[in-house]
């Protein structure tokens, strides 16, 4: 990059508040405390995302909340260039526990992302709601 070219900006943009339901309230309460929860099914033993009462893998309602370190790798991503706040990236992170999470990437310039890059969860404030999980490079 030459001295006259600007370095790509780090991606940040306002995120609207999520809808909090009876089913998702424990997740959002934990997020407000800086903890990332996923659901694990006691019947099949697998973790799943988005956290919900019924396991999408086997149909069991024997699911429990589990705290996750919130670490994984970028499976895929796409940079959105047409935005009033500048470019930002959305994509999927495959958590170390197995599930894939659709997310925003922060604290990294668009050209700094790579498939397979290790990332970790971070909570970003929203507009009048609980913080949401986003991912940043490890």
Automatic annotation (TrEMBL):
Keyword DNA-binding assigned: yes
SUPFAM superfamilies: Nucleic acid-binding proteins
Cited Pfam families: OB_ChsH2_C, zf-ChsH2
Keyword annotations: DNA-binding
Domain ChsH2 rubredoxin-like zinc ribbon: 28-62
Source domain of life: Bacteria
InterPro entries xref list: ChsH2_C, ChsH2_Znr, NA-bd_OB-fold, Thioester_dehydratase-like
Any one Gene Ontology molecular-function term assigned to this protein's record: DNA binding
UniProt key word Transmembrane helix: no
ChsH2 C-terminal OB-fold domain span: 65-124
Protein name (database record): DNA-binding protein
Lineage: Bacteria, Pseudomonadati, Pseudomonadota, Alphaproteobacteria, Caulobacterales
